[in-house]
Write a structure and sequence with these properties.
The protein is mostly helical. The protein folds into 2 domains: 80 residues, no CATH class; 39 residues. It has 6 helices and no strands. Helix 1 packs across helix 2. The protein is extended, with a radius of gyration of 21 Å. The mean pLDDT is 78.
């Protein structure tokens, strides 16, 4: 029963914040994501022993619903995608993808060569 209550709270919060986001000129998906983040934060603050939060982290049914919550927006984005838009924005997408690869790689390499990174090497026994 707590799953139904948690889903109801999630849906109501997502709907409310999506309407608020739409009224201030943002996409409704932004409000829905903010609702999810706000609920996660409130669950962290309330702790694992709150009635609405207890038992949810290990619940497989909720995990399946969460997977569907990721699958359907990605599916809809793919369905609504236009090839002409993709070709027109290819250069920007390539730059973003390359930065998304190069920046974490460079940060990892630089952190390894930093004085703190040298001291944290695992010792061989």
């Amino acid at each position: 029963m707590e799953i139904i209550g948690a889903l109801l709270v999630l849906l109501l919060a997502a709907r409310l914040l999506s309407e608020i986001a739409a009224r201030i000129g943002l996409p409704s998906a932004v409000g829905e994501m903010l609702a999810g983040m706000a609920l996660i934060l409130s669950a962290q603050i309330a702790g694992p022993h709150h009635d609405l939060v207890e038992g949810l982290p290990g619940n497989m049914a909720l995990a399946e619903v969460a997977d569907l919550g990721i699958f359907f927006p990605v599916l809809m984005a793919g369905v609504e995608m236009q090839l002409a838009d993709t070709v027109r924005e290819a250069r920007k997408s390539l730059v973003v993808a390359l930065i998304g690869i190069a920046l974490p790689l460079a940060a990892g390499i630089l952190s390894r060569f930093s004085p703190r990174g040298r001291n944290s090497r695992p010792r061989r026994s």
